[in-house]
Description:
single chain
Amino acid sequence: xxxxxxxxxxxxxxxxxxxxxxxxxxxxxxxxxxxxxxxxxxxxxxxxxxxxxxxxxxxxxxxxxxxxxxxxxxxxxxxxxxxxxxxxxxxxxxxxxxxxxxxxxxxxxxxxxxxxxxxxxxxxxxxxxxxxxxxxxxxxxxxxxxxxxxxxxxxxxxxxxxxxxxxxxxxxxxxxxxxxxxxxxxxxxxxxxxxxxxxxxxxxxxxxxxxxxxxxxx
Length: 218
């Protein structure tokens, strides 16, 4: 009999299949949670409803997420990661602001319509829960930090001594925020209008920051 290690191929495949099923169920729970938050509001949605919407028990849901807030934050973290991946994938010779602007489009193209709708309406859907607002604020701060890190990596600079990545990231997120406010005030329900507003406002940044605005009222 020949010697050597024996590989349990069937066992490995079984483990891989179980992990894929678990990952698929986790994503289904997130997707259903976001949909119900949009339809019923955050307070109006229960963990029982989220579980039932994908045909599992509440106990099963709790194996993945201890609370609604945990599910929400994991959803936001996944969405943020998609944006960071889009930013990393931009051509290395793109100027930082251009890369950020184009990464928004790439990111938008990479998420499903329901997620786009949730992203555009999240501030309204979640605004009445102080605990969630606080958690989201912390999540946004971490996201800003990570964007700045990627900007610095792409530019080959050290954030410890060069503040430009932090400054640019703060400007970028602030501009996107003003676009969201304008979109909300317009009464539009088309999430693509939000993307368009963000890109148009980002195009104004170089002239607004370094350009000559001329004489007011001239």
